[in-house]
């Protein structure tokens, strides 16, 4: 019996070998600790994981979106969790705007050291008042001049649910520098330790336990004007420019944990006996495994195709929304069935399928809730009035 065919590239094996060697022996402890160690970022950088998909001109290793898909598929196939990827690869959401529009000084100060595993960055868009409607964000930044004549933004507001926010050295923060709506949004790089910037790490979650998640406070935080990414008002366009890579990555999380849960369930069903024969001898069990296989294959094939088309220069914003939804629905179904097929053993804390089941629940919410992405797709595909 075969599991769905993985992409057998060198990058896939790079990710899988890293996880077998550096992650699997420690993952349970990191889940308990609520974070992954900083040293893991440096190890990942040294072994060629962090810079993949970023241009060499900013300290990356080059490569395409499809290469990052291969890497993450490989990591999940070897037993990484979705939370581990979220925590270790937060650079994938914190840096793209800096790469696209940051000054050379910002690239040197934040992008290169992050890709070298020396710094950790976060992306802060969501606020306690709402995450889906980015255009209404309320955190403000007003340009002032200090007593030595240096321009600085003074930031007031708050952000919540920020991945790696507790460990971050800097936070790419969406702020309102102008009027209402999309056009008034800008991105500022805020460094941890700046007076007035606070980090509340007390958020506890259903899943993604090894990924720290923080609430951030900005009470008159002075940020050098040179920490503006691009120009004032560019923020929403920069955020939108990263939509495809973020949504494809979360689709990979979803079908990746589904594929892993299927593999674990299939192995269990071959060994576990009930009523004097292996579980897999029951037609209803076999057919369930095939249905899980089908959903993983469809999600994987479509997501990879969307990544390939993105790499070829096509606009696939709508398709990335559909890929994320397809993969999240596969994960919801497959991870649930994997627990069911494990019986009581699947319900125990520490069972790998139990972790994937919990981790799957964030995926249709984070990075754009399914309903919001479907509505965006409706507009882009011409189904809106
Ligand atoms: C573990 C975790 C990590 C996260 N990491 C980050 C991060 O690093 N950076 C960051 O900025 N944010 C992060 N988020 C926030 C995440 O992106 C938001 O939770 C998400 O965008 C939804 O926003 P919200 O929670 O405010 O829900 P709301 O916007 O209040 O929406 C609630 C629900 O209503 C529904 N809904 C919303 N709008 C519509 C609509 N127009 N039509 C129909 N239904 C709708 C959806 O089901 C949605 O889930 C993270 C969240 C979690 C839980």
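Q: What amino acid sequence fits the structure above?
A:
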């Amino acid at each position: 019996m075969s599991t769905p065919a993985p992409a057998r590239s060198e990058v896939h094996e790079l990710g899988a070998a890293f996880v077998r060697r550096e992650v699997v022996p420690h993952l349970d402890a990191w889940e308990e600790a609520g974070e992954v160690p900083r040293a893991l970022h440096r190890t990942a950088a040294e072994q060629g994981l962090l810079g993949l998909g970023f241009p060499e001109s900013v300290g990356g290793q080059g490569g395409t979106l499809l290469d990052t898909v291969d890497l993450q598929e490989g990591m999940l196939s070897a037993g990484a969790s979705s939370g581990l990827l979220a925590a270790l690869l937060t650079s994938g959401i914190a840096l793209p705007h800096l790469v696209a529009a940051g000054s050379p000084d910002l690239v040197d100060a934040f992008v290169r050291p992050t890709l070298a595993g020396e710094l950790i960055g976060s992306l802060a868009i969501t606020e306690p008042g709402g995450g889906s409607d980015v255009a209404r964000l309320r955190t403000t930044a007003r340009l002032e001049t200090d007593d030595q004549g240096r321009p600085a933004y003074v930031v007031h507001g708050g952000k919540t649910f920020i991945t790696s926010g507790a460990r971050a050295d800097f936070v790419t923060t969406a702020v309102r520098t102008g009027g209402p709506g999309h056009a008034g949004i800008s991105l500022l790089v805020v460094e941890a330790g700046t007076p007035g910037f606070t980090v509340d790490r007390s958020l506890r979650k259903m899943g993604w336990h090894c990924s720290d998640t923080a609430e951030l406070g900005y009470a008159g935080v002075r940020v050098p004007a040179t920490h503006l990414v691009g120009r004032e008002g560019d923020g929403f366009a920069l955020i939108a420019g990263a939509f495809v890579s973020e949504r494809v990555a979360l689709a990979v999380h979803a079908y990746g944990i589904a594929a892993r849960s299927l593999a674990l369930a299939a192995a269990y069903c071959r060994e576990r006996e009930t009523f004097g024969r292996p579980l897999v001898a029951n037609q209803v069990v076999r057919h369930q495994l095939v249905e899980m296989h089908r959903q993983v294959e469809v999600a994987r094939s479509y997501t990879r195709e969307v990544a390939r088309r993105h790499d070829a220069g096509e606009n696939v914003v709508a398709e990335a929304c559909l890929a994320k939804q397809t993969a999240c629905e596969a994960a919801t179904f497959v991870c649930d069935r994997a627990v069911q097929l494990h019986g009581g053993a699947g319900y125990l804390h520490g069972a790998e399928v139990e972790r994937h089941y919990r981790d799957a629940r964030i995926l249709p919410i984070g990075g754009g809730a399914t309903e919001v992405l479907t509505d965006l797709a409706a507009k882009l595909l011409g189904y809106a009035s």
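Q: And what stands out in the fold?
A: The first strand starts at residue 121 and ends at 124.
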